[in-house]
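Need a sequence for this fold. Nothing fancy.
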């Protein structure tokens, strides 16, 4: 099966779990393949899927692949995960799901800057940089990556 055929097969199954396929890759290694699927979604808090959602979706994906004899008749390993905090923000939903997080933005023109996402819509995001608001137009972003904060206080604090 091709990647697009697999996406067509798995999209509805993943959607039943409130998730979406963020990325799907087939990595071939001789007679063996690795099927890597990265899932994303709003989750119960609106900030991404939780482990239970990923586990439930993984079981459903595995069952569907067994039934379809996919990705081929050769042996394969299935790897399912969330997209991860270090994955670049490439869609508006990624920005929205990472509201309140610190993000490093590399614009198409100018210097990199870091700010906290306060909100996002389909066209851009609002950041807070050193206490000042700044609008980010997604069309002007080369790359944006969430910055991991080890000692960050929780939202309730």
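Here you go.
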């Amino acid at each position: 099966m091709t990647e697009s055929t697999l996406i067509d097969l798995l999209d509805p199954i993943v959607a039943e779990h409130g998730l979406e396929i963020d990325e799907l890759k087939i990595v071939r290694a001789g007679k063996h393949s690795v099927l890597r699927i990265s899932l994303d979604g709003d989750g119960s808090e609106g900030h991404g899927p939780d482990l239970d959602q990923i586990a439930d979706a993984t079981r459903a994906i595995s069952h569907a692949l067994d039934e379809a004899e996919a990705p081929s008749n050769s042996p394969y390993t299935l790897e399912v995960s969330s997209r991860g905090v270090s994955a670049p923000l490439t869609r508006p939903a990624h920005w929205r799901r990472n509201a309140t997080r610190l993000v490093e933005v590399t614009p198409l023109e100018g210097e990199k800057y870091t700010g906290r996402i306060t909100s996002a819509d389909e066209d851009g995001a609002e950041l807070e940089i050193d206490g000042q608001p700044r609008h980010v137009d997604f069309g002007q972003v080369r790359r944006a990556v969430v910055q991991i904060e080890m000692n960050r206080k929780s939202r309730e604090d």
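For context: The mean pLDDT is 90.
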